Amino acid sequence: MLVLSSPSGAGKTTLSKKIQQSDNTFRISVSHTTRKARPNEVDGVDYHFVKHEKFLSLVKKNTFYEHTKIFGNYYGTSKSSVDEIIKNNCNVLFDIDWKGAQQLSEFKELNLLKIFILPPSKEELEKRLIARNQDGKESIKDRLLAYSEDIKHSNEYDYVITNDNVENCFKEIKKIILKRTNI
Q1: What is the pLDDT of residues 54-66, one digit of tens each?
Q2: I need a surface site. Which of 21, 100, 142, 144 has the fewest CB within 10 A?
Q3: How far is CA 52 from the centre of its chain?
Q4: Residues contacting residue 23 through CB under 8 Å, at least 6 positions apart
Q5: For residue 140, what is the domain's CATH number?
């Protein structure tokens, strides 16, 4: 099970999709979220988009391996979605933040390989957040404020990689995966 985490905008979702596209044994766990879908996102593919009440009901039913609130919205990985990926003899790829990774780490039966993705700098992160044109000025400000807290948790991961070039970063991740599977 591969966990990719990063500050918002550092490239974890792009890298997750590249891994899945390059290796059909990996499936991205589709999280539940209460945030609104972005124009290019599809319910059930990118996220399971649910109302706050529904999400909190799922929390009460102990449905999630991990869940957290980020920038005013809830996110969570359901146990059933992970179990389904495993049942299909595939590797699970988690695209989650450090809080979710901490919660997953509590399940000792999960064989996790955790990689933290850093942007080259906070200034570059800001440029990427602006360029992706998905967040307003306040949201970008909030994400930049969270950056310092996010990177404090990079030492909780097996590997830390700087994403200064998405192709080079992808190659580094592939090397780590190969090294892990050839042990």
Answers
A1: 999 999 999 999 9
A2: 21
A3: 20
A4: 91, 177
A5: 3.40.50.300
Residue 92 corresponds to which amino acid? V
Is the pTM above the cut of 0.85?
yes
Distance CA 28, CA 17 (A): 8
Cβ proximity of 120 and 163 under 8 Å: yes
Beta strands in 43-156 (DSSP E): 48-49, 64-70, 73-78, 91-95, 113-118
Distance CA 121, CA 162 (A): 9
Q: How far apart are CA 4 and CA 21, in angstroms?
A: 15
- Please give the backbone phi and psi of residue 11, each rounded to the nearest 5 degrees, phi first: 115, 10
Closest to 7 (Cα-Cα) out of 176, 109, 146, 121: 146
Q: How many domains does the chain have?
A: 1
Residue pair 164/153 in contact by the 8 Å Cβ criterion? no
Sign of CA dihedral 164, 170, 112, 10: positive
Q: Are 112 and 104 in contact (CB under 8 A)?
A: yes
Question: Tokens representing 121?
Answer: 């700098």
Tell me the per-residue pLDDT of 134-160, one tens digit each, with 9 for 90 and over. Answer: 777 888 888 888 898 899 999 999 999
Residue in the structure block whose two tokens are 């957290």: 68
Spatial separation of the C-alpha atoms in residues 141 and 129, rounded to whole Å: 10
Contact 140, 130 (CB under 8 A): yes
49: left (phi > 0), else alpha (psi -120 to 50), else beta?
beta
